[in-house]
Amino acid sequence: MIVMLIMVVLVIVIKMMVIMIVMVAVMVVVMGVVMVVMIVFVLMVVVVVFVVMMVIVMVVVVVIMAVLVAVLVLVT
After folding, report:
1. b or e along 11-37 (b: 16 or more beta carbons within 10 Å of the residue's beta carbon)?
2. Distance CA 51, CA 45 (A)
3. Residues 54-74: b if buried by 16+ CB within 10 A, e if exposed
4. Which residues are listed as membrane-spanning (predicted)?
5. Whole-prediction pTM value?
6. What is the rounded distance in angstroms from the CA atom of residue 41 to the CA atom of residue 34?
7. Could you read off the pLDDT of 10-54 as tens digits, one per residue?
8. Residues 45, 58, 43: CA angle, nearest 5 degrees
């Protein structure tokens, strides 16, 4: 009888431990996925900002060139 009780308790404890391990594993996987998604999102934002900055710089350079050309034409 006592052996049966010990067996039942052991089975319950093992089940609880397995459930805990599975929960922890799922949490770790979810955290990993969230981290990856966040990193990808940050990279995307950085790339977009970089592209926008490049475009703005290009536009500014073109405008400055146009102004310089116009000034040169007017002066000459």
Report:
1. eeeeeeeeeeeeeeeeeeeeeeeeeee
2. 10
3. eeeeeeeeeeeeeeeeeeeee
4. 7-40, 46-75
5. 0.47
6. 10
7. 999 999 999 999 999 999 999 999 999 999 999 999 999 999 999
8. 15
